[in-house]
Design goal:
Length: 368
Amino acid sequence: MESSEKKKIKQPIKEQFGWRLKLTLAGCVLAIIVVTLGAFTRLVDAGLGCPDWPGCYGHLTWPDKNHEIQAANYAFPDTPVDTSKTWPEMVHRYFAGILLLLVASLVYISWRNPKQRTFKQIHFLMALITLQAAFGMWTVTLKLWPQVVTAHLLGGMATLSMLWLLVERMRYDKLSGEFKNYRKLHNLLPLAVLTAIAVVVQIALGGWTSSNYAALACPDFPTCHGEWLPKADFKEGFNILQQIGPNYLGGALESDARTAIHFIHRIGALIVTGLVLSLSFFSWKAGEYRWALILIALIGMQVSLGVANVIMFLPLSIAVAHNAGAAFLLLGVLTLCYRIYSAGSIELRENNSKKNRIIKDSGLAAEL
């Protein structure tokens, strides 16, 4: 009886979800591409490459012929066509649209089996990606208002995280044996959750830094303008009541306000680094050497890219990689959180099953 129950718990992945799992994994890959393309679009100042939405100067793609460009310039005299900025914006939109259709297909499939344990999560994901599409529209119509741009970035990270957690739920909810030293590692769950929250806050700070064009507000490292505590206007830098209406392309804040944003982003990086290294240290002590090394590699890569952005004056490839690195760091910490929690649920379920068998067997013995 015990062996049959274990066999049921360790059911092969294909029998559980099959091609739905593959479709969700494809969604994760596509979400990473969308997040990376969003960073690329933002960094090449193409956020307003198309002044209308969802088309581009009234086109399904973008105007590229002379007569199309002339007609577009006539229709939008305040925003003349710049072909180097139209295509990044529309490529990003099309990949985001494909991702939305993929999630919609997951919703359709879930309705064929509403008792599936991922049913609610898939519908929440659909609501999230729909809201994300609205933020994409507002990014254009509100002319890169920093609050919306930052929220759009967080929405992209949340969509990617939800897709990955769906994969984790499909793969690990019924699989035991993920951790050899679960009891020791279980004590790390609060630290892992705190680290995940810190990473999310740091990503939000990174989005605020980027949307206010403060990435090079401190041109030196490790100091800022040659000082450890530079002159900064924190009140104006973190004023979330900025006026809606002006065009925020290129930023609208004074130098001291941008310095404040950049400086706080650096402080956040120190805090996140300390938390991730602490989590990796205690994971190592718990015997989970693989996870400790993964965390060290992720935070090491991200810190290195952040420093390189400053000392190399924000090269495009490294800046885009820094955004992608933030996504992978978030996924790494969230995965560890979920697997610790999931392993605990599995252990509790197995212990309860054993207790029930003992009680049942003792009851049968008493009757005999």
